[in-house]
Design goal:
rod-shaped; mainly alpha; about 85% helix; about 40 residues
């Protein structure tokens, strides 16, 4: 039972991390498009 809760917490953490990474990458791409480095 406790392991299930732990696994769920880890899954949530991983999900949040991947979402943050995706958002960061998206912002990076957008900034590159708006302000191209010459």
């Amino acid at each position: 039972m406790r392991k299930l809760v732990e696994a769920r917490r880890i899954k949530k953490l991983v999900h949040n991390l991947t979402r943050c990474k995706l958002i960061y990458r998206l912002q990076f791409v957008v900034s590159r498009c708006l302000f191209p480095i010459t």
